[in-house]
C-alpha cells in the first residue's frame, strides 16, 4: 500500500459536492462528473505514478481508474470527497485483458477496508512486509488484533494474487542478483536508481524495494534460491 497525502481539494470536486452533497444515485452522479481526468492527473502526481494499493506502475497499457476508498454506493456523501479518492491499477475497460483474478479497487468493489487500513492513513505502509517469494504479509511487529485486520485488507484487495506475487518476486530476485555483482560506488548508483524518483515517479513496488535493498549489504536475501531462478 502507498501512503497518499492529499493536497487541498480540487475546486471542481468541491463544486460538485456543493451541488449534490448526498447523491441518491452515486454511480450516476459520478458518471456525470466531467472532470475525472483532472482528478486523475493530480492523484497520479501525489502517488508518484503508482497504484495506491499494490504499488504497480500506473503507466502501463492496462491503465488505471479512480477508486473511492469508502465505496460511494453505501457512502453517497463520499462521492465527491477529495480525500476519499485514489488511483488504482487497471482501467475499468481493461479488466478483461488481465489474466487471473483482479486486485485493488476492482477486487474491493463496494466493500469497506478495515479501519486505518487505507492509503490515506500515515502509517499504512508500515502495516505490511514483503517476502522474497513475492507475498505481502502483515508486519509481525503489529499487535495481534491489528494483524487480523491487515490480513483482511490483503485479502479484500487481493494483494497476493498470482500476477502480483510473481512480479514482486521477479523484481526482488533481479535486484539481489544485481547487488551481489556490485560494490562501492556502483551499489550506491544502483540504489539511487532503484529507490529514487525518475521524472517524479517511483519504480513499482517501491516499499518492497526499500525494505529489501536500502540497508544493503547489511541485509542478505532470506533464502539461497537466487541463482536458480
UniProtKB/TrEMBL annotation:
Protein known as: TIGR02646 family protein
InterPro entries with a match to the protein in the record: HNH78-like, HNH_nuc
Annotated segments matching region Disordered: 1-25
Keyword Coiled coil applies: yes
Organism whose genome encodes this protein: Magnetococcus marinus (strain ATCC BAA-1437 / JCM 17883 / MC-1)
Presence of keyword Coiled coil: yes
Gene3D superfamilies in the record: 1.10.30.50
Composition-biased stretches (Basic and acidic residues): 12-22
Keywords assigned: Coiled coil
Listed NCBIfam families: retron system putative HNH endonuclease
Coiled coil: 147-174
